[in-house]
Amino acid sequence: MQTITTIAELRHALVQAREAGKRVGFVPTMGYLHEGHLALVAASRARSDITVVSIFVNPTQFGPSEDLSAYPRDFPRDEQLCRNAGVAIVFAPDAREIYPAGSETFVEPGGLAKPLCGSFRPGHFRGVATVVCKLFNMVQPDAAFFGQKDFQQCAVVRRMALDLNLPIEIVDVPTVREPDGLAMSSRNRYLGGEERRRALAISRGLFAAADEFRSGERNVEKLIEIAKEQLNNVDRLQYLELVDCHTLERAASPLRLTSALCGAAYVGSTRLIDNVILSFPAP
Ligand code: PAF
User: Fold this and answer.
1) How open is the CA angle 93-272-124, to the nearest 5 degrees?
2) Distance 15 CA to ligand 1 centre (A)
3) 175 vs 261: CA distance, rounded Å
4) Is the pLDDT of residue 14 over 80?
5) What lines the ligand 1 site, CB under 6 Å?
6) What gap in Å lies between CA 265 and CA 274, rounded to an integer?
């Protein structure tokens, strides 16, 4: 495995692979890797000849009052996990490499970035779209892999790849959960013992609604209410919405199309997000 920090070295390392006709899979991350990231690597390895993982805590996707400086980092451990997982290249640039001095050009996503997390984290998806577009330009992968836990991020990135004519397959990989249901996230490490227990309310709420959906409930307000009933234990619910998977707008009731039930809540000072997909079988 190679660890690379500059764009020039990265391009050089990838030239040969491309000339040899190898398919390049790409997993963008902010590091502090967990099983969810390793599932993205496994998905990439299953569909690509070589896998590149980027590790870059992207400043432009954090708001002024968010946790950029406190974001967990453990590069030696990340490198070891990547080596064990069969990653070919770890790309770990610093901020000046990604954002050259005087940098002032951004990718501005449209309506998909507005609801849900977008309404609580202004500018977040602009930062995500910008860095993902830059990383795509650097790696030029055939396919890129994103976790479904970040459902809105997947939608924004897929739309961006389409709108900017990027010849990259965007693959969503199902959320990996702890045995008790908590969605894996680098931010879970902030949760103290009692908070960790209370954080389970989010997945419980989503699962309760998904169970009712499987039993035939199709009323959108009712499904949202069922999920919210479990959420007394969180400190601040930001949103709990049932949205159309393509537009991210409130799903029409009664539900007829595959939709996503998405939530964001604070437990202590940790902001957690999660979602479940309520699927209808393909016609
Ligand atoms: O999902 C993440 O970790 C980040 O938003 C991403 C896609 C690596 C961009 O910084």
Assistant:
1) 50
2) 25
3) 14
4) yes
5) 28-30, 58, 61, 128, 131-132, 150, 153
6) 9
Query: How far is residue 162's CA from residue 11's CA, in Å, rounded to a whole number?
Result: 24
Question: What's the CATH superfamily of 2-173?
Answer: HUPs (3.40.50.620)
- Which residue out of 12, 37, 124, 246 is catalytically annotated? 37
Pocket test for ligand 1, best of 26, 27, 30, 32 (most atoms within 8 A of CB): 30
Residue 138 Cα to ligand 1 midpoint, Å, equals 15
Report CA(29)–ligand 1 centroid distance (Å): 5
Domain ranges for the chain: 2-173, 186-274
What token pair was written down for 74?
């453990």
pTM listed for this prediction: 0.97
**Which tens digit of pLDDT belongs to each residue from 194-229?**
999 999 999 999 999 999 999 999 999 999 999 999
Percent of the chain's residues with pLDDT above 90:
95
| Nearest-angstrom CA–CA distance, 188 and 281 | 33
Three-state secondary structure along 175-188? Answer: CCECCCCCECCHHH
Q: How confident is residue 282, by pLDDT bands cut at 50, 70 and 90?
A: confident
Among 3.80.30.20, 3.40.190.10, 3.30.590.20, 3.30.1300.10, what is the CATH number of 186-274?
A: 3.30.1300.10
Contact 14, 138 (CB under 8 A): no
Peptide bond into 167 cis (omega under 30): no
**Catalytic-residue membership of 37:** yes
SS3 62: coil
Q: Do domains 2-173 and 186-274 have the same CATH topology?
A: no
* The two structure tokens encoding residue 228: 């919210």
Q: What is the mean pLDDT of residues 171-185?
A: 98
